Amino acid sequence: MEKLKSIIPDRIKRTIEESGPEDLPSTCSTLLHWCLQTPLFHKILGELAGSDTALCGKNMEAALDFKRQGNSFFTKGDYASALHFYSKALRLAPIDAQDMEKNLVATLYVNRASSLYKMDRLVECLRDCNRAIVISPSYAKAWYRRGVANAALGNNHHATCDLKISGILEPSPSGKGHVERELKETRDKCRNKSSSVVHQDGRSQSCIDEKPKMKLNIVHTPTKGRGLTTEVDIPEATLVHTEQPYAMIILKRFRDTYCHYCFKELPVDVNPCPSCSIPVYCSQDCQLRAGGMFERNIPKSNSIHKSIPDELQKHIAEVIVTDRCKLDDNHFAEHRHECKGVNWPAVLPPDIVLAGRILCKAKHLADSFEHQIALDLAHNYAQTTPEDKLEFHIYAIVLLSCLQQSHDPKIQPDGVLIAQLVILISQIKVNSMAVVHMKSTDINVAPGESRAGGPSSSTLEQIRVGQAIYLSGSLFNHSCQPNVHAYFISRTLFVRSTKFVAAGCTLEISYGPQVGQWDLKDRQQRLHNDYSFECQCEGCVDLNLSDLVLNAFGCADRSCSGVVLEIGAAEYEKKRLRALQSSPNTSPSKQLQQHQTSRKEDIYYMACHMLTHESNQIKPGYCLNCGSHLDLEVAHIKMYEAEIPISRLQDAIDSEKLQINVLADAVRSFKLLKSVLHQYNKRIAEVLDILSQAFCLIGDLEAAIRYCKSSIEILEKLYAPDHIVIAYELWKLSSIQLAHGNSIYADSFKGVRLILSRYFGSQMEMILPQLESYTQQPC
Ligand SMILES: C[S@@+](CC[C@H](N)C(=O)[O-])C[C@H]1O[C@@H](n2cnc3c(N)ncnc32)[C@H](O)[C@@H]1O
């Protein structure tokens, strides 16, 4: 694509780079015309959408090769590796391929079920047996494996039925004898034990079904465009909005670990797309909802074997039907148009493939492209950088041409349609939400030091799994100090208030940057780069103490707790102060009063100074409190000197090869760092956290706890004590305390629950099931 971009004539490039939304039909038409006459464009198109270069289709030879490797590991007793290779084979096996007179996919499912059985993953084993049976209902081995797994689970009635069916279908006399013996054993067990049916999937729905109790209204704001409010007061932790995505896509790096439809972590028994080798799903249900070209008629159970008695025919019908979900008529299968094994859905960037999904959905809903395909959402095409404008044009033409070639020849790219697609891509840039899932990860503690005898310290992480468009959710504006929190369970967006919101106030989520995370300069630059707006939220307009100290140096006079800003931060603070001083609504003295009553801390005095002095008093390199000068160049040299041993320590932690002298050097450097940075500089909190991890690794949990607590003290000042980031840190602290056998872990953990319940309400335990195990730990 870069090569194509580089040969576009300058005159066309210039008109595109200078274009506004109204010029698009003409610029798109010009570029399309040039593309169609350019051999390189046709070559690229052939690679992306041509059937002879398609690399994402099924491949019988490769599937058989993986199957052989799976068999070889199974014979050696390495069931985990066998399972891995059977899964790889399933991803590549053509759905109707035959291998040794059996359906290859069904055979692979049964082979994988056998590995799962050996690994004691009985529920997953059952699911694989069902998948094999849906494809090949007369497959005796699949019924046999199902029967054995059901027997092990105590599902005695099901086990007996499965084994009876297997016995009838089994062609060889020795096989029949084997099944008979298993059936007898199961019957004996039935006589001795009462049967308890274990279901294959017991996911709780009730928490997902929570509905918001209020209506959101769209309002027009002077500085942020449309926004959302309610007519009623909203207490904290109230669910204000839920929504299903209009379109969604998984990010490339999570393709092998998360379900491409529901975005949950994949189980061991992954379900591949039946017609191409790209997506994998957690269940057949998700695979059917996502689409995929293969559609199979469910075989009639009574056609399977004439000699099977009626009650067993009923059992067969139940097994085949349980794995089928009901889809309503309007359901749009979002992967179907991508599913020809051609390369473009795997190669193009996720937001472009997402645009393809929206486009095909528009066509599915209206049965043509004649109506508007762009959505009723804001876009920033006019403010987009010249490079991005050119890129949007190229991708719009490439995507439409790929769809025309590999999906629907009726799609006719022209200037108007491409222009709409360019706007759609700009809308995706501004409105798509990062779909984030929570995950807890163990940190190793030195063997023997953990009370539980293993790795027991853990951290919470947010993982950005995908990208989605929510039509109403897109109307939430951004704030760096948001009053509502957006999160996801599977594909559903939930928005919950994290503080009291008075009726009529706008509800604002964070698009990423937050006070405490970055200072004013970094937040504004990030929002400008990603969304092309100058943030007008409270956190950016009003004075903010966290912004002052977050990246600040300390005063040259170490008895003064004042802050010294660098040039960039000082410029942004000056600009903010000037705007505040000229605004009649937010007079600095009024703000001062607010700070006086809310925060009686050292850094409060810096705020006083800023608010009562002229803005040109904010000079880089000078203490905002006492005016002392700090040589910023010398301070930087000291900082870099201190950072070298600290980054060496970080590397040692990452590689889990920590030597005591590396840790000792880092502790010394930390003292040097503290001597130049402001005491509430965020880097100090980060280094304290690194030291805590290091002490965890060498098993000095008391030191680890001390450093972790000091880090939290700083973060509480930067974010606020009830911010979700503090819950993550308290989670870490309580897990180290627990590993140390320290009963006060319960206090830290109470703090975690308190904060998380404001962010996730009653869904907290569903999002973080690990919470339950902490609650149940004995002190
Ligand atoms: C996802 S849309 C939000 C809805 C939008 N206001 C509308 O009218 O459709 C994002 C756009 O809203 C505006 N916006 C959102 N938050 C803002 C903020 N804090 N300050 C200024 N503009 C904001 C920007 O124009 C941004 O590109």
UniProtKB/TrEMBL annotation:
TPR repeat segments: 63-96
Annotated SMART domains: TPR (SM00028)
Record's keyword terms, sorted: TPR repeat
Gene3D superfamilies named in the record: SET domain, Tetratricopeptide repeat domain
The keyword Transit peptide is assigned to this record: no
Alphabetized SUPFAM superfamilies for the sequence: HIT/MYND zinc finger-like (SSF144232), SET domain (SSF82199), TPR-like (SSF48452)
Pfam families: SET (PF00856)
Organism: Kalanchoe fedtschenkoi
Domain SET: 212-512
Family annotation (InterPro entries): SET_dom (IPR001214), SET_dom_sf (IPR046341), TPR-like_helical_dom_sf (IPR011990), TPR_rpt (IPR019734)
Protein name as annotated: SET domain-containing protein
